Amino acid sequence: MRTRRIAALGLLTLTALVLGALAVAVIADSGSGTPQPTTTAAPLHPVAGNFKPDATALEDCSEEDSACIEQAYGNLAYSSGPKRAIAVLEENIDVDSNSCHRIAHSIGSASLARYKGNVGRTFAEGFSACFSGYYHGVLERSLVNVKSYKAAALGAVARGLCADEEIRAVQELEYHCLHGLGHGLMITSGYSLPLSLDVCDYMSGEWAVRACNGGVFMENFFTSYGVQSPWVREDDPVYPCDWVAEEDKRPCYQLVTSRILRVVGVDWERTAEICASVEADWISACFESYGRDASGQTHRNADEILAICASARPYGGERQCVQFAAMDHVENYAAGTQAAAFCDKTSLELQTPCYQALGTILGRFKRTAEERAVDCRSLTNDRSKAIACIRGASTQLDAVVGQ
Questions:
Q1: Partners of residue 23 on adjacent β-strands
Q2: 75-85: per-residue pLDDT in tens?
Q3: Residues 364-378: pLDDT tens digits?
Q4: Would you call 133 helix, strand, or coil by DSSP?
Q5: How many CB atoms lie within 10 A of CB 145?
Q6: For residue 329, with 0-12 CB atoms within 10 Å meaning exposed, 13-18 middle and 19 or more buried, which class applies?
Q7: Terminal CA-CA length for the chain
Q8: Coil, strand, or helix at residue 35?
Q9: Rounded to two decimals, what is the model's pTM?
Q10: Cα angle vertex 275, ends 272, 279, to 5°?
Q11: What is the H or E stretch that residue 13 is in?
């Protein structure tokens, strides 16, 4: 297992107060070159622990009582299944809201309890809306009973979680499993970034490692429970992407604008300038992140996205911005119709690469090349665009677009 370059951190203490549950994780330099948690991190939220059903129902909860609401949705998933809980959730909650993500965590955790720890079946019953909170809840809970926080022990458990045939049969499910696993590793380890990345290295194959790493970096930049990871810096909005090992940089830079926008405010011009100033080999990856965030921040408003992507044009990043915005459309709608409409609004020279990009995500949802081709052809009457989509759908992309 490789050793990562370490900054002089001294002793870091991360204290998180989330919905009344205090969780303290202490991270120290072990002398081996990799910070390790010196105490076992407590679950940062009941969702990350063993879900316990009770009699709480939605009608018992006030709009302000988030803990009650999350428990009620968990109870609904436990008793009636995740599909019923998801249907009620989508009727009542904005799927782009933070509260939806948190509730989806509860549904995922409760569903895993309903299916007695069967990750494959639980994933197959799930959904990717609400920033993939359902998948995150499943994977966090799956790691609760790990007895050792050494990378090898965690890796042995983690590697098996996404190996179920039901998951691996559909690449989209496998991606979300691995991505959610990365979130779960950060939370379980008390936000130890080096340890979480080391555990991801135990996944099978480069694509799986990077998918897991993407979840690690996303949790690092945008924590599920409102805490701040020790692996960010106010004076360096790109950190830790400019610090991690070379093989970990792509998934980090493909998410880095989520951090940059927090530091500089929602200032797209300044963010584009920062992307243009990062390590030369990773400028394009930064603008990929830029497009993903442009799509998410605007709630997938095509005109607003294109205006933001135009800010990347002077730096050569417009194409990457458009492509990853299209991919974000597919991921969040679990379909290509909205992405195709977006691509058709781009400039002529960007439409074909836009269709190829949407195809890379659309292809994850189907098992065969024939099914992927049918999906692509259903989106457009333009043969060149359909071919671009099909080409993309045949590619196993190591891009971070899950939430």
A1: 16
A2: 999 999 999 99
A3: 999 899 999 999 999
A4: helix
A5: 10
A6: buried
A7: 28
A8: strand
A9: 0.78
A10: 160
A11: strand 11-18
